[in-house]
Design a protein that fits this description.
Blueprint: E1 4-8, H1 20-28, E2 31-34, H2 37-47, E3 53-55, H3 61-73, E4 78-80, H4 94-102, E5 106-110, H5 116-123, E6 130-135, H6 140-150, E7 156-160, H7 166-177, E8 182-187, E9 195-200, H8 201-211, E10 217-221, H9 224-229
Parallel strand pairs: 1-4, 1-5, 2-3, 2-4, 6-7
Antiparallel strand pairs: 7-10, 8-9, 8-10
Helix pairs in contact: 3-4, 6-7, 7-8
């Protein structure tokens, strides 16, 4: 009889942000699959958990998926975690989930900490509907095109990017979306350095250019319809 694949959400920064259910599942499963050894090992040591482990990341996803599926098919229960937050969401693991679905393996999501919803709720923008545009291209020419496609989006827009690209991203948002577009940047959520920035895109570009901030962040953009309402 096949085992179970658990998708376990982990803290996005503050290690206190893990659920009791997540801790129990990590203690009970046969194998924990993490994204990177450093982050996965740090969390398990913090929780006092010693388990057989496997890794699944962008470099070994295809090969690791086959190994993990074989473990589950042999009756092992497996917990998949990412470096931070919910596995599969903007992280490796989708191939594993797709093949588990095809193999009729039971998949159990264990919800937990998220950067997406906290950033939306502190933005002050309408969140009855929103668009998650994820990570834009690291290449500026392509990123400009992607922002141009979002320029007339009337719903609130959520973006993420690498910690070292905050200034470049804000520059391009200011250039493409204009001086009136309001932005919220939720920086280092749940950490002691957590800061929420509100302002127009040009204002925040200047702010981040001066401070040279580097850290995890979520960018929330006001929808285009809200500009004409003001």
């Amino acid at each position: 009889m096949s085992g179970i694949l658990y998708l376990v959400a982990t803290p996005i920064g503050n290690l206190e942000d893990i659920t009791l259910r997540a801790i129990r599942v990590l203690k009970e499963v046969d194998v924990v699959v993490y994204e990177e050894r450093k982050e996965g090992g740090r969390l398990l040591r913090h929780l006092g958990i010693e388990k057989p482990v496997e890794s699944l990341n962008e470099h070994n996803e295809a090969a690791a998926t086959g190994i993990i599926l074989d473990l589950i098919k042999s009756g092992k229960s497996v917990a998949l975690i990412s470096d931070a937050g919910t596995p599969v969401f903007s992280d490796p693991g989708q191939l594993l989930v797709q093949r588990a679905v095809d193999a009729d393996i039971r998949i159990v999501p264990i919800p937990g900490a998220s950067s997406l919803l906290p950033a939306l709720t502190v933005s002050g923008f309408s969140i009855g509907e929103f668009v998650f545009a994820g990570f834009l291209s690291p290449k500026r020419n392509r990123r400009i095109v992607e922002l141009q496609q979002l320029k007339r989006e009337q719903r609130t827009i959520v973006l993420m990017d690498a910690p070292y690209r905050l200034v470049q991203l804000m520059r391009d948002i200011a250039d493409v979306l204009g001086k009136e577009r309001r932005v919220c940047v939720a920086f280092d959520l749940t950490l002691p350095t957590e800061t929420i920035f509100h302002g127009t895109a040009p204002q925040l570009f200047q702010e981040f250019s001066r401070s040279e901030k580097k850290g995890e962040f979520v960018v929330v953009l006001e929808g285009s319809s809200r500009i004409s309402d003001r």
